[in-house]
Amino acid sequence: LKSNPSNNEEKEAQTQLMKSDELQRLHSQALSAYQQEDYEAAISLLDEVLAVCVWDAELRELRAECYIKEGEPSKAISDLKAAAKLKNDNTEAFYKISRIYYQLGDHELSLSEVRECLKLDQDHKQCFSLYKQVKKLNKQIESAEELIREGRYEDAINKYDSVMKTEPDVPIYATRAKERICHCLSKSQQATEAIKVCTEVLQLEPTNVNALKDRAEAYLLEDLYEE
Questions:
Q1: Arithmetic mean of pLDDT over the chain
Q2: What is the CATH number of the domain that holds 158?
Q3: Is the predicted pLDDT of residue 159 greater than 90, yes or no?
Q4: Residue 217: CB atoms within 10 Å
Q5: Helix (H, G, I), strand (E, B) or coil at 59
Q6: What mean pLDDT is predicted for residues 21-47?
Q7: What is the secondary structure of 142-162 as a DSSP string?
Q8: Cβ contact 157:181 at 8 Å
Q9: How far apart are CA 14 and CA 105, in angstroms?
């Protein structure tokens, strides 16, 4: 402006300056809302800023944190994936994505993302620790599924018992393990046990189709046709 003042350029520059002041104000308000744990308000403010500052990785990471707190993991993953692309060597984003997938019970995607973190930094302590855990769990689940395909139901039950011991703190893995144990018991005609385990699963997930089908098979073995 100083080098080449003209009405048009001055008008444009003033508009941009006002816009930038407004965005800084919204950014400050978003940080304040986040610190006060008003995550819904923070998301709304960050939406406005990110509509203009599309390539800001740190703002995306902040909004992802808000989404996690608000129980919207898929939206958090979307922001973190963008942040991983926008910022070089963003190990933290890959670690967070992997943790979210793990908590959701998607061990395969969790393993894939934590490997991306270790490609960037093989000495990353958090990623390496998570990698060891997910890899062990993934291997046990794959092994159990292979045993089911081979019709070795008793061995598969033992393997899924190991899965529950490997991950006692994330409930989804125990539920999935019990669902598969219920299937194995039904297939190996251990009707009473199958009904018991399937019922445990259905108390947690009343619309679990697999558990309903397997329990129905077990009821047939017991001649409980109404059930």
A1: 95
A2: 1.25.40.10
A3: yes
A4: 19
A5: helix
A6: 97
A7: HHHHHHHHTT-HHHHHHHHHH
A8: yes
A9: 51
